[in-house]
Specification:
Number of strands: 2
Oligomer: single chain
Distance between the termini: 22 Å
Helix content: over 70%
Largest sheet: 2 strands, antiparallel
Structural class: mainly alpha
Strand order of the largest sheet: 1-2
Length: 182
């Protein structure tokens, strides 16, 4: 009897081999998970404060919006590594039935294209991060006088998540080209 998760995944769609990238990706994913718990606690505290004392916590909406984007980017590399990144696997499955090696090459091409596209995104995003870092007083979320949060930490997390995902795409492509089950 096979594991339901193993049979539902596309062949060669997960991981990138064992190496130093694995713990980094797992750590970013864990950080995102802990952040989810913290945001849930913040929302519950805000609800309690609103209900019991008619005193909401300032900036909760901004912190939640900030957090959702940060969490997505922190967990993106793990999503790719675990084979949970959304894609259509019909072509890969058809090719896998006829030629497993051709399917591995097709997966490698998919991963290389993903790495290139995300690297280009990072390249064009980096000036935005730099501007937010140099001028935090001009780059913020929220309402001045009520609650503001600088955007550079969020942009930094996005950059870290993009870089980790590019590396994961490359590790997965390497595993595919080497003929290993990534």
């Amino acid at each position: 009897m096979s594991d339901v998760n193993e049979t539902s995944r596309a062949p060669g769609g997960r991981g990138g081999g064992d190496g130093p990238l694995g713990p980094v990706v797992a750590g970013l994913n864990a950080l995102g998970s802990v952040w989810i718990i913290a945001i849930m606690l913040l929302i519950c505290a805000d609800i309690a404060m609103r209900t019991l004392f008619n005193a909401p916590i300032a900036g909760v909406a901004e912190m939640v919006a900030f957090s959702i984007v940060g969490i997505v980017f922190l967990q993106l590399a793990h999503t790719l590594r675990s084979g949970a990144l959304t894609r259509s696997d019909l072509l890969i499955m058809v090719v896998m039935k006829r030629s497993p090696r051709a399917a591995q090459i097709l997966l490698a091409v998919f991963n290389i294209i993903g790495a290139v596209l995300l690297a280009l995104t990072f390249w064009y995003f980096f000036p935005v991060l730099s501007k937010a870092w140099v001028q935090p007083e001009r780059n913020f979320m929220g309402n001045p006088g009520f609650f503001v949060i600088p955007t550079w930490p969020l942009y930094g997390l996005m950059a870290i998540g993009m870089a980790a995902t590019v590396l994961q795409y490359l590790a997965s492509a390497w595993a595919n080209l080497a003929g290993r089950q990534p």
